[in-house]
Amino acid sequence: MEKNKKGIMKNKYANLLFYLAVAIVAVAIMISVIDRINTANNNTNENLDEKHKNYCTPESRKAEVCITLYEPVCGWFNETIKCVRYPCAATYSNKCFACQDPKVEYWTEGECPK
């Protein structure tokens, strides 16, 4: 009977090691996928034409009141925001509201890409 117990114990340890290895591989894959997503986000943001980027100025950030005219813009976040997926931005009703948000570095015309 003791032989069976040792055999069962060895099987339990083998199973435990197997599941631990599977978990390690799964975490490594997840880290790799997140890294690829972040790289894709950075490359996409860098590919935007500089002439289409409208950077928020200190004056535009000081606006106390924004007109409620709907002219959608995509406010692209600065590096204080760590994005998990593209786009690293939010759609605002106009450039005034975009620049009031301290997370926004610059804006582009139109709604954000999906």
Tell me the fraction of residues in β-strands, as a range.
Answer: 5-15%
Largest sheet: 4 strands, antiparallel
How helical, in percent, are the residues? 40-55%
Termini, distance in Å? 64 Å
Q: Name the average pLDDT.
A: 84
Derived from helix and strand composition plus strand pairing, the structural class reads alpha+beta
Our Rg estimate from Cα atoms comes to 25 Å
Give the strand tally. 4
Q: Give start-end ranges of low-pLDDT stretches.
A: none
Order of strands across the widest beta sheet?
1-4-2-3
Any idea what the shape is? rod-shaped
Q: Which H/E pattern describes the elements?
A: HEHEEHE
- How many helices does DSSP assign? 3
Q: Total domains, how many?
A: 2
Note the topology:
Elements: H1 2-47, E1 54-55, H2 58-61, E2 73-77, E3 89-92, H3 95-100, E4 104-109
Tell me what you see in this structure.
- The protein is an alpha+beta fold and 114 residues long.
- It has 2 domains: 47 residues; 66 residues.
- Helix content is 49%, strand content 15%.
- It is built from 3 helices and 4 strands, in the order αβαββαβ.
- Strands 1-4-2-3 form a 4-stranded antiparallel sheet.
- The radius of gyration is 25 Å and the shape is rod-shaped.
Summarize the structure.
The chain has helices at residues 2-47, 58-61, 95-100, and strands at residues 54-55, 73-77, 89-92, 104-109. With 114 residues, the chain is α+β, with helices and mostly antiparallel strands. A four-stranded antiparallel β-sheet has the order 1-4-2-3.
